[in-house]
């Protein structure tokens, strides 16, 4: 894993991105250089257009989810994503290279090569997702522990990280409860350092259930680190593997003394400027869709097109969120707040559709323009639920240290939730965002939001 602007990315992901970008740029430059004398005048324009197309393909592949490290995607699904990417990539290649100042024959050849390069990128994305190449690049991980915490680490690695290979579990000296398969325990008389080197381990995850009474062999762990083996604790493991802060395995000291949670006027000013730009751009593009949505809501049922509801924002200050009305006007006629649930019978027919494709969220762009919300941040909750969740879930109030967002890390990583347990899961992603938020992470979230909207993932 490589950390970029506080966000963890797999080395394989970066290699995939650079391969795709390099393939397009190399193909374009190679064609220009093959043209002989005219290459010097055309090369700067062709190279800049090639970089533009490569950037567009990065956005397309990110939005279609090709750079996400998943291992349960079928070949059919990958092909469908590739075809969807081609629907945008090929026209973009044609339009971009039709602007290159060159003779008609040279321009046509450049355009053709660019379109072929786009197709090659998408074919390679499908191949890379299902070939055995990833297995040869997997990190070898030794889990230090054999109790419940070690079992949880093993389960998450097998379920979420196709680039990880668990070489075994090493039992701590004071662990009595074994909850991992006995054949996978590698203690054979060797100390931890010897076992790690013998197994050619890349990383050790410390997941001891009992750390008192000499359970932590610090000298051996230091020797492992000096030998080039990465050593991480369980909280850091969940942070980089699942991109969440697991509240079961984190303590206040880890949050206080670790890095992250950086705030500042410069960061806030830049984020505010980006919020204004993106909100205005999306409003400029989506206003016809918003107009049609307002008309459909008015035709289906009586009542206001928009609804305003009090939510908790930055530093616990309440504000009125604006959304398209997707429920009946008597949704809470008894006056008692209720969680919105999947297949909620209070949702209208139009409301069910606009929730599925997230159109109901578009009026929140006006909250962004007024400075009450950001484009990216934790989902704003109602005061009634905040009071309940703060009393039951540790660190829940931490999410109010940043502005709530139209979209967010929890929204793109976890399906819509309607229970306390769902709130815990979503909080873990929100804590990750609050700890590691940056403009780079905001951009990734907005790209993943496109994929969520296109696939209907997590619709409620």
TrEMBL record:
InterPro entries: Bact_transf (IPR003362), EPS_sugar_tfrase (IPR017475), Sugar_tfrase_EpsB_2 (IPR017464). Keywords: Membrane, Transferase, Transmembrane, Transmembrane helix. Gene3D superfamilies: NAD(P)-binding Rossmann-like Domain. It is found in: Membrane. The keyword Transmembrane helix applies. The chain crosses the membrane at residues 12-33, 45-67, 79-97, 109-128, 276-297. It is a multi-pass membrane protein. Residues 271-454 form the Bacterial sugar transferase domain. Belongs to the bacterial sugar transferase family. PANTHER family: COLANIC BIOSYNTHESIS UDP-GLUCOSE LIPID CARRIER TRANSFERASE, UNDECAPRENYL-PHOSPHATE N-ACETYLGALACTOSAMINYL 1-PHOSPHATE TRANSFERASE-RELATED. This is TIGR03013 family XrtA/PEP-CTERM system glycosyltransferase. It comes from Pelomonas margarita.
């Amino acid at each position: 894993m490589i950390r970029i602007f506080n966000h963890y990315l797999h080395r394989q992901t970066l290699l995939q991105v650079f391969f795709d970008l390099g393939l397009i740029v190399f193909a374009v430059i190679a064609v220009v250089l093959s043209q002989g004398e005219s290459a010097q005048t055309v090369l700067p324009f062709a190279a800049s257009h090639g970089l533009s197309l490569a950037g567009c393909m990065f956005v397309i592949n990110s939005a279609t989810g090709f750079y996400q490290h998943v291992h349960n995607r079928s070949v059919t699904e990958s092909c469908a994503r590739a075809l969807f990417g081609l629907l945008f990539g090929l026209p973009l290649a044609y339009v971009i290279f039709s602007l290159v100042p060159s003779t008609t024959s040279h321009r046509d050849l450049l355009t053709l090569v660019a379109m072929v390069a786009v197709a090659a990128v998408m074919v390679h994305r499908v191949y890379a997702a299902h070939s055995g190449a990833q297995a040869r690049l997997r990190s070898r991980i030794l889990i230090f522990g054999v109790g419940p915490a070690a079992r949880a680490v093993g389960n998450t690695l097998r379920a979420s990280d196709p680039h990880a290979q668990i070489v075994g579990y090493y039992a701590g000296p004071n662990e009595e409860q074994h909850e991992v398969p006995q054949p996978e325990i590698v203690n054979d008389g060797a100390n931890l350092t010897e076992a790690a080197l013998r197994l050619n381990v890349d990383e050790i995850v410390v997941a001891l259930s009992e750390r008192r009474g000499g359970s932590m062999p610090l000298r051996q762990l230091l020797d492992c680190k000096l030998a080039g083996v990465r050593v991480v604790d369980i909280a850091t493991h969940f942070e980089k593997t699942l991109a969440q802060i697991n509240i079961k395995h984190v303590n206040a000291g880890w949050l206080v003394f670790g890095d992250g949670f950086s705030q500042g006027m410069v960061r806030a000013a830049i984020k505010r400027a980006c919020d204004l730009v993106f909100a205005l751009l999306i409003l400029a593009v989506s206003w016809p869709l918003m107009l049609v949505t307002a008309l459909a809501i008015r035709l289906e049922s009586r009542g206001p097109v928009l609804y305003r509801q009090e939510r908790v924002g930055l530093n616990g200050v309440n504000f009125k969120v604006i959304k398209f009305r997707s429920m009946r006007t008597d949704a809470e006629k008894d006056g008692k707040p209720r969680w919105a649930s999947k297949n909620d019978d209070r949702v209208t027919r139009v409301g069910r559709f606009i929730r599925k494709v997230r159109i109901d969220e578009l009026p929140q762009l006006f909250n962004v323009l007024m400075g009450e919300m950001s484009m990216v941040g934790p989902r704003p909750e109602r005061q009634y639920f905040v009071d309940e969740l703060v009393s039951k879930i540790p660190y829940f109030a931490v999410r109010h240290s940043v502005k709530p967002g139209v979209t967010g890390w929890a929204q793109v990583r976890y399906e819509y939730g309607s229970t306390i347990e769902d709130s815990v899961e979503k909080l873990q992603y929100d804590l990750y965002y609050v700890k590691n938020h940056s403009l780079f992470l905001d951009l990734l979230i907005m790209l993943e939001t496109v994929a969520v909207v296109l696939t209907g993932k997590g619709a409620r």
